[in-house]
Structure formats: structure tokens, C-alpha cells
Write a structure and sequence with these properties.
With about 150 residues, the protein is α+β, with helices and mostly antiparallel strands. The chain has a single domain, classed as 2-Layer Sandwich (60s Ribosomal Protein L30, Chain: A), CATH 3.30.1330.40. The chain is built from 3 helices and 7 strands, in the order αββββαβαββ. It has helices at about 5-15, 70-85, 105-115, and strands at about 25-30, 45, 50, 55, 95-100, 125-130, 140-145. Strands 1, 2, 3, 4, 5, 6 and 7 form a 7-stranded mixed β-sheet that branches. β2 (about 45) and β3 (about 50) form a beta hairpin. The radius of gyration is 17 Å and the shape is globular. The mean pLDDT is about 85.
């Protein structure tokens, strides 16, 4: 690809090609709750969209959930559900998920739990294997969701 074409595509992706009269959506960065300060926002709100930081399968004490990939998947999805509800959304508003697995061979076992959280529709999803996750976790889930019009 020519350098000029690549530069144009990158500029558009970064928003330089947006309509000059389009108003910008307000952006709100929300830190994780609790006394431990982490180097990321738990969720970023942009208009009606919520962009959640990756969620490990850890409980409220910060320990990895028991039960292997299925226990960790369940806990990660419960963590996501809690963050969504705290921000005016729900699992029904979940639109995209990226699944990072420590071992791609655990894909089928992860899916057995994952699908139970989406009885009405399945969000778009992509997945990849990693070379390790924080805290020795088996899975990390990162998602995007919408919010209702009336949510604050």
C-alpha cells in the first residue's frame, strides 16, 4: 500500500476525517472502585457506548476463581454484569466481546459457560490465545455495550 494511502486510512481511523459540524460525544473515564489504584479505567463512557477494561475471573478479594476455565469464565462474566449494571446497562446490551485465553484448547469449555449468559442474543466476538494472563488467569474478557437513553 502506498504511504499516502496508509496515512489517509490512519487519519480517518483516528477521527481526522470526521464531519466538521458533528458534535463530539462526551467522554467519561471511570476508575475501578476500591482503594487499589490501577493504571486503567474500569469503563469509559462515550455517549451511549460503554468500553470495559478486560475482566479476569477474579472474585472480590482479588483471587482467581476456582473451577478452572469454567469457574473463571463465570466469574469474569459476573464481574462484567456488575460493571454494566452499575453503568446503566445490562447483559442484553452487550454487543462485542474479545476473549483472551491462556490455552485455546479450553475454548469449548469456556463456551459452555459463556453462552448461558446470553439467552436472547449472542454478541459479536473474537478470541485469541495468549502467552499468559495477569494473576495466572485462564481467561480475560473485554467488552463493549450500549446504555439505555435514560441512564446517567
Amino acid at each position: 500500500m502506498h504511504t499516502l494511502t496508509r496515512t489517509f486510512i490512519l487519519a480517518c481511523a483516528l477521527g481526522a476525517c470526521s464531519h466538521p459540524h458533528r458534535s463530539r460525544q462526551p467522554v467519561e473515564w471511570i476508575a475501578p472502585p476500591g482503594p487499589v489504584k490501577r493504571p486503567f479505567s474500569e469503563v469509559v463512557r462515550v455517549g451511549r457506548m460503554l468500553y470495559l477494561a478486560g475482566q479476569l475471573g477474579i472474585d472480590s478479594t482479588g483471587k482467581v476463581a476456582s473451577g478452572g476455565i469454567q469457574g473463571e469464565t463465570r466469574q469474569a462474566l459476573e464481574n462484567i454484569k456488575h460493571v454494566l449494571e452499575a453503568n446503566g446497562s445490562s447483559m442484553d446490551d452487550f454487543v462485542k466481546c474479545t476473549a483472551m485465553l491462556a490455552d485455546i484448547k479450553e475454548w469449548a469449555a469456556m463456551n459452555e459457560v459463556y453462552i448461558t449468559y446470553f439467552p436472547r442474543h449472542l454478541p459479536a466476538r473474537s478470541a485469541f490465545a495468549t502467552n499468559g494472563l495477569a494473576l495466572g488467569g485462564r481467561i480475560e474478557l473485554e467488552c463493549m455495550a450500549t446504555r439505555t437513553e435514560t441512564a446517567r
